[in-house]
From TrEMBL:
Pfam families in the cross-refs: MOR2-PAG1_mid
PANTHER family hit by this protein: FURRY-RELATED (PTHR12295), PROTEIN FURRY (PTHR12295:SF30)
InterPro entries, sorted: Furry/Tao3/Mor2, MOR2-PAG1_mid
Positions of the Cell morphogenesis central region domain: 7-163
Leader sequence segment: none
Name this protein carries in UniProt: Cell morphogenesis central region domain-containing protein
């Protein structure tokens, strides 16, 4: 697929070439974000990578694309938060997400990490997919991209609790992600054997390679 080919070149080619590839992809997604089929984790990872670009026009284009992704894809399905006796939909409106993303333009040096932390909290259900995407890209990315990819990955790793399958299961809500007493997600993904194996196997492979 052409999109996959161009996306791969954003990680493996020279800065000038990868900037051109990202610019082409960003313009496509900005124009037809809701109609163009895409792997959202792949686009999200590439966008966050370019938010940290030292070239201002690429940084600003990545922020624009991030706004479009939030409106068209990322906030379609919200994680749920547990309340006393019930489960309700998170009420934070899309406009708050857009406002936060736009505010990153004024905190340029920290924008990449701040955005990754924000999205890891807003969409923890993407944690496993994001971890797989980033670790896959690290293997073939240029040296200049690798450090940024690992920086992007770090906030998502915090969403995962390592589990020893040989130990008896706890009666608590091990699969919930808590922040100030609120559970952001219930179900498998982290706090599970699947997540533990994914983390350990991929980190071990990256270490030895």
């Amino acid at each position: 697929m052409v999109i996959d080919y161009v996306t791969d070149r954003c990680y493996t080619k020279s800065v000038r070439f990868s900037d051109r590839c990202f610019t082409a992809l960003a313009k496509i997604f900005i124009e037809v974000a809701n109609d163009y089929p895409c792997d959202i984790t792949a686009v999200l990872t590439l966008t966050m990578l370019n938010v940290g670009s030292p070239r201002m026009h690429i940084h600003e284009l990545a922020l624009r694309l991030m706004v479009v992704l939030c409106k068209g894809h990322l906030i379609d399905t919200q994680p749920t938060t547990a309340t006393t006796g019930s489960t309700e939909q998170l009420a934070q409106p899309v406009t708050d997400d857009v406002a936060y993303i736009l505010s990153l333009a004024s905190s340029y040096s920290k924008s990449q990490m701040l955005l990754s932390e924000y999205m890891a909290r807003r969409r923890p259900d993407l944690t496993i997919a994001m971890f797989s995407e980033v670790t896959t890209r690290v293997l073939t990315a240029t040296s200049s991209c690798r450090s940024s990819l690992l920086m992007i990955l770090l906030p998502w790793v915090y969403n995962i609790e390592l589990i020893d399958s040989s130990l008896p299961k706890s009666n608590g809500n091990d699969n919930n992600y808590y922040d100030n007493g609120h559970a952001f997600l219930k179900g498998s993904g982290w706090g599970s054997v699947q997540a533990t194996e994914l983390i350990l196997n991929n980190l071990f492979y990256l270490t030895v390679t």
